[in-house]
């Protein structure tokens, strides 16, 4: 097989493996900014700036600002409780949506490898193990344990960027390894045929190319459906976070000392 044909085979697989990430790129938009970091554990919510706790809420109703307790009326406590409950519900949702967005792509890449090298093949298991380790580390970065979360200040306009930015090179390396795995497991026989059969390699390339086309068609549909479902989930989340921004504005009116620490900011 000449160099041009080898390159064509490699780039065909590269396009197929990267396709899930391009498919979901349009989704998961939300015009919300988190102006501060948020740390959540079972008893506390902390709003953090440059590693220092500025606001702390204990058990949804006890408020501290820069270490000093702010004594609250019943009405103020009710507003603070509503805000706290919303934060506890929505911050884990950020983590869930972002991880699911990455997972759509990783599962699709793994499916490509399994389809071309065989389900539960050594090649597929090798790639799956790398994906499992990466997903565990991505989750551990934001979710240290079952009920403990940390989200840094950021623009939530693109959920998947929030997660993949830190791990982008590693994801690309896994995809490149996947290409090498497929070439090793499937392409080796094609290369061997070139030396013994004038047309055998050509025939095998054509057959393999047809398999890629068939696989691409099915995978595009599956990824598009999952991305659409995730987009709806993200839209609901964004709406809930917008409502939480409105509740925070009420809280600031009721407790003026909180105005300096506007956590959620919805942009038009």
Kindly describe this structure.
By secondary structure, the protein is an alpha+beta fold. The chain has one domain (3-262). 66% of the residues lie in helices and 13% in strands. The strands form two sheets. The chain has a six-stranded antiparallel β-sheet with strand order 6-5-4-3-2-7, with helices on one face. β5 (62-65) and β6 (68-70) form a beta hairpin. It is elongated, with a radius of gyration of 24 Å. The N and C termini lie far apart (56 Å). The model is unreliable at 1-8 and 196-201 (pLDDT under 50).
Descriptive terms for the model:
268 residues, alpha+beta, six-stranded antiparallel β-sheet, three-stranded antiparallel β-sheet, 9 strands, 66% helix
**SSE string, helices as H and strands as E:** HEEEEEEHHEEHHE
Query: Helix count?
Result: 5
Q: Which structural class fits the helix and strand makeup?
A: alpha+beta
Gross morphology is: elongated
Percent helix: 55-70%
Strand content: 5-15%
Number of E-state strands: 9
**Could you tell me how far the N terminus lies from the C terminus, measured between alpha carbons in angstroms?**
56 Å
